[in-house]
Amino acid sequence: MTSRPFLAVIQYDGGGFAGWQRQPVDRTVQAEIETVLERLMRHRTAVTGAGRTDTGVHALGQGVSFLGTERWQPDDMRRALNALLPRDIWVQQVCVMRAGFDARRSATARRYRYLIGTDEAAASPFRKPYEWALGRELDERALHGAAVALLGEHDFRGLAAAGANTSHYRCRVALAHWAPRADGMGMAFTVEADRFLHHMVRFIVGTMVDIALGRRSPDDFPRLLAATDNLAASPPAPPQGLYLEAVRYPSDLYAAEPTT
Questions:
Q1: In the predicted model, is pLDDT for residue 1 greater than 70?
Q2: Percent of the chain beyond pLDDT 70?
Q3: Cα dist from 222 to 16, 228, 229, whole Å
Q4: Fold of 3-106
Q5: pLDDT the model gives residue 136
């Protein structure tokens, strides 16, 4: 039967995985999904993720593309995947896409969220795996100032992992915003850009927090956005506070109107 591309929007708890990308030994999200698809399709089926999240990083809206036969309808595919996937992965939505769709290359924007717990109870075992249990108050004005400086297009050599496998370091940031968390337990940072580099969000958050704690000057942030290496950056924020929240695709790549 003829194959066609599918998009699965998935959520996962990153605490039990060595990241998204398949590894020779360690457990990964990609390997778990490919194992289930091999059972469903009765042959090896490769998947592509919109973002290669690191060990411990979570997802609320990771985009995953793969090829499936026309006998599979989106709702049936979603039910079958959720019946077989482990409990720390959940498929929120499945869509049929147009020929040539690729979850990584077709994406026009990705949005991440980072959660920080500023209260003492952030150290609770029911919260610590899902946020940065900082346990200290942050200067919101300093956070907002750094977020404003982040907007626009920059070369992120100063705020990304060294030796990234990329032809260039330029990213265009469309949204960067700090706000008190809805649960009143700390701060949340939302950032959206056309692309992200390895550890980029974690370097950004780590540096912003150091500024908000008075450990470094607010003037450091614009200098890091113009730096040619990351030697002056603060240590990256812990992975467990980071979530891949959503991935955007052009509407004309969907073969039908997306449904949940």
A1: no
A2: 97
A3: 36, 13, 14
A4: Alpha-Beta Plaits (3.30.70)
A5: 96
Domains 3-106 and 109-245 share a fold: yes
Mean pLDDT of 108-121: 97
99 Cβ neighbours under 8 A, 6+ residues apart = 4, 5
pLDDT at 195 over 70: yes
Query: Does residue 118 surpass a pLDDT of 60?
Result: yes
Strands (E), 130-253: 132-133, 152-155, 170-180, 186-193, 242-248
Cβ contact 221:146 at 8 Å: yes
How far apart, in Å, do the first and last CA atoms of the chain sit? 26
Length in residues, the chain = 260
Domain ranges of the chain: 3-106, 109-245
Q: Which residues are tagged catalytic?
A: 54
Q: Which residue has the tokens 């500023």?
A: 118
The whole-number average pLDDT for the span 122-131 is: 97
CA–chain centroid gap for 197, Å, is: 11
Return d(Cα 231, Cα 219) in angstroms, integer: 16
pLDDT-above-90 percentage for the chain: 93
Radius of gyration of the chain (CA): 19
Q: Under CATH, which number does the domain 109-245 receive?
A: 3.30.70.660
SS3 199: coil
